[in-house]
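DATA SHEET
Item: assembly model
Revision: 1
Owner: S.N.
Input lines:
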Amino acid sequence: MLQHVRLLTLVLALLLAACGAPTAPAGETAPTAPPADAPAPDAPAATGGTITIGSTAAPDTLNPGAAYLIEAFDVFELVYDGLITVDLRAQAQPQLAREWSVADDNRTWTFTLHEGITWHDGTPLTSEDVKFTFEMIAGFDSFALLKDYTSLLESVEAPDPTTVVITFSEPVANTDERFSALYILPKHIWEPFDEAAAGEFENVEMIGSGPFKMAEYRPGEFLRLDAVKDHYLTPPQVDGVIFRVYNNGDAMVQALRTGEVDLIDVPTNTVVRPLQSEASVEVVIGNGLSLSDIFFNVVTPENCPPDDGVCSGHPALQDVRVRQAIAHATDKQQLIDVVLLGLGVPGLSLVTPGHGEAFASQVEDYAFDVARANQILDEAGYADTDGDGVREMPADPATALRLRYSYPSDQSTDGQRIYELLRDQWAQAGVAIDLTPLDADALTAICCPAFDFDVIYWGWGLGIDPASLLYITTTEQIPTGISEAGYSNPEYDALFQQQLVTIDRAERSALLHEMQEILLRDVPYIIPWYAQTIEAYRSDRFTGFVIDPDGLQNLNSRISLTAITPVQP
Amino acid sequence: MSQRSDYIIKRLLWAALTIVFVAVLNFFLFRVLPGDPTRTVRDPRLTAEARAALERRFGLDKPLVFGTIDAPFDSQFFRYLGGLVQGDLGISFSTNRPVADVLRERLINTVLLVGVGEALAIVIGIAMGVVAAWRRGTPLDAGTLLVGLFTWSLPTFFLAIILLIVGSSYFGLPVGGIRTPGFSGNAFAQAMDVARHMLLPTLTLTIILLGQYMLIMRSALLDVLSEDYVLTARAKGLTHGRILRDHAMRNAMLPMITLIALTLGFTVGGSVLVERVFSWPGLGLTIFDAVSRRDYPLLQGAFLLFTVSVVLANAAADLLYAALDPRVQQ
């Protein structure tokens, strides 16, 4: 027996030793990356340091043609250059291109590149690379998220090493997003690939031309980038950036507290207050490009997709008055206060305030007014004939206004809460909802193009272009599975086509406003809120993040990461 | 002798059959899930055309089981089987990397973490079980039993997050990951860096797992200790240590071998909960993410790996049992 007790003690001692011994040097042995080049003795004090950014997911792949996750695009933004970029107010700014102009036909764009740019491996970057990239992506259908940026592309010419002429077959309105988000790739790396090989290329060396270059990549763990100190446009002050993965949001917040990371996207609003009270942590809250949405199944029998359509939506949802009444019965402020702890802005349509003048801020939303909601439904003939608190169809007392409701249970931790609030709010107007939580894939299977649902709560991230989400309510997207509500309105469709080719910003904004008004009038969607971007950083480690209260916020954007400097102890 | 080799051959044949059956089943299992790998990402840029191109790239445009009359075997199923026979597990949809690469990398991480955790739990659990059984009825027994039952019923997630916060706040231990990014040093320093990262997740696993070993060891040993031959040994005047080692432990270890072999088989599956809290990129976490992205090739490969290891561990236990206990062959 003594032997066994000794064994136990030994194991415990080992555990304690392992726990205790390496603790002391932890501070020193957890250094950030050693600087690539030894700093010159007379270097200014406020440079150096490697910032560690925590995120709750790893990049899916480093191949820009195959990546889907925002975490991958966060990396591409630092490593690759676009022809242009957009600032926090969504205004176009130079990047690879020093200057550019559009011809009178609104189809031909001429770019002049900076002189003497090189790729991270030293090869010169010329207009040939730009021409190659556009043509390669235009030819590769499976380059999913980039391919769309080359639609209507007619030709790309490179008359001399610093000049690129891009011609579209028609005028194109969303050029800011196209030219900024289509990363220019090195011809000498990508040229040998056919479409299949390009799709499977892992691109672990990620040769780009941006202000940071690949240093070390461990899939699922972290990705380390070194600063390109002689970058032609925006040389960073810091020595490098580490993107580090935490698969658990609470753990990531703890890592910020212990200083293991310097910057995070705050994973849940409940930790905002505790973090705000930490002396060395700064919490920044601002506009983002995302929204949550509640959509109704409004697809009509004639629009039901012949192949995949089930189209089992509740008949009452075909009546715009019912949807308007539900909009009146929805208390967006309560949802924001309870679910987001107040950190959100009431939603309006499929364009966000972050899109600037294209957002129809002058339009008035449905007021939260239960009496008005009940009045609309009474007048429309939806009476509660059996007195159970739920209204019935006018001509069919057997069919109650009882709607099936689902949300993506694997993506939305607040989904249950939102359901309970909506259930109680809509019950005031005599509309009942029954919950079926489904994971996102199962939800897609009933959603679209099957249209086998009544109401779904979900969310979207949007592009820089204000119309990036407006195409999901066009008629042509009903059979493709892009349209979620099955909404169809020829007037809206015509406006959508028109704005695509309207270059003049003011003119285009007017069209976009009109589209938002139509959507608000017909209520295929209720947008409960525009979520705010909430980020937190160690103010005792880095300073100089670029923050604009009226612009978009993204502290791990290139704009901030090339501007920040370390805090000297 | 021939009876014995018959048994071994039969056992191995059965194991091989199980693996083939599961390999076929795996293909259909994940495709029964509702959802579509090309639709798991909601992005306004993912147009219908792009999705169709993705389906072609993933081979999802092919018929499921049988192709056309001209090429009846040009289907998803036969391409999967054909690849499998050649040792090709395909390309993971969600990570765009060969499935074999992903699994190899994650398997090492998982075996490191769960293997060490299990080994510690087995050693400590058996030791505690022996102590409790030998001192049956004393406060020491009661205390050990209480500890065993308590740790066994602790929710993994809860224990993990508590250890994480305490360990990182007061002992300077890392919050997550396997190593410090950008860490440079010699092999020993790097090993110590990994050990520091391993400490909290391993401790969590050990605490959660040791209870079951302790309880089974205790009850098996109690059974044996009430046997007549133990009484005889006592009567002969043997020391406590010799009775335990030579007479009791040998027989009490039989049920432990089954349990150990089974858990070692499942070790490969990793521990989703511990891996998630401590951001340990092991197989458990990989499977979890693969399900939500409907990454069929990765799921098929991972489940094949699980099957092989569980089946082999079971076969090993059976064979070992046969060697230890001649009655099994009858």
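QC remark: The first helix of chain B runs from residue 2 to 32.
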